[in-house]
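Quick one, T. Sequence first:
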Amino acid sequence: MQTSYKFNRNQLIALCSVTLLVPALRLVPSLTASLGGRAAWLSVPAAALPLLGYVWFLSRFMSHRKSGEGMAELTLRCLGSGAGGAALLALSLWMLLYTGFILRSGAERMVTMIYPDSSPVVFSVLTGLISIIAALGSSRSLVRFAKLVQPVVLGTLGLFLLFALTSIDYKNLLPTGDALPVLAASLPVIDAVGVVLCFSCFLEGSCEYQPRRFRSYALWLIPMLVIFLLLNVAVIGRFGAELTSLLTFPFFTIVRNLVFFNALERLEALIVSLWLFPDFLLVSALLYSAQHCLRCLLGEKPEFRGESRFDLSRGRWVIPLCGALSITAAILIAPDASSMMQWSERTIPIINLAVSFGFVPIIYIIGKLRRKI
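Structure tokens:
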């Protein structure tokens, strides 16, 4: 009897929940505070409607998939082999660049918060190598691991936010009355959620078909936006918008300053280390999605069939190649802190928004015009 490597939607949503924390804690609330000032916490309700619209769009798009199809296969069907192949190559390069950035960003966090005398290259390479091994397995292993660590990661985040909310100054949250900064501040929230929703569609080929996709993801979106809201309120309410906008890792700065029951203090090393799990899952899932696209481009059938991790047949040699490219990007992406900030706050968010809300909808529109979906 052949083993099934499919998983259910709840497991995929768990992967979205854990991996969302990576861009969430990077962009929120430092970038939202920079764009929206004291009213930055209002960026979350401002982002709710556009994100619900994006969930509805992706649900419509993915409703056209056949058994075993994900976003990669739908792209080929919508655009044809020529244009579809070019699109898959572009999507793969986007995911590999984003993977390299996540490796470097996570390494910078470890160096800044725990090991100031270390090099980010070491952490980038180690996380990248472990993620390559994970990507050589099945996507079901990734979503199951996400389901396992989800309560630990979200529970820890919730506990620290609860303690942080007890010591905020509400004067730091009074809005200035101008709506334009709030709308601008909603873009980092839209970006963080949109990119996770987008790349997760590439994993849906191994997901069991279940109805009511929009309902499931809409119900998932609500508590995720509550986390964004509490994060904004806790950090901006404690530090103020001006200081928050200058902090590289504002949530972990709060963790460093919290004292629990007058006994346990300075837990940032434990919490920063715990965030290696979201980094690992996001990098592994992006590598898996990128290699899936490239193997479709090569004419292979990339679904996992129980191969050993070091079996490089059927185009699986692409997986370590993708890992090597991502590690190289992590090492070369930014020579100093100022350029890394540029990548974090401008380059990567702009690219992600363009792909998620521009490139992918164009694929859908062309597929509709060509009557392929």
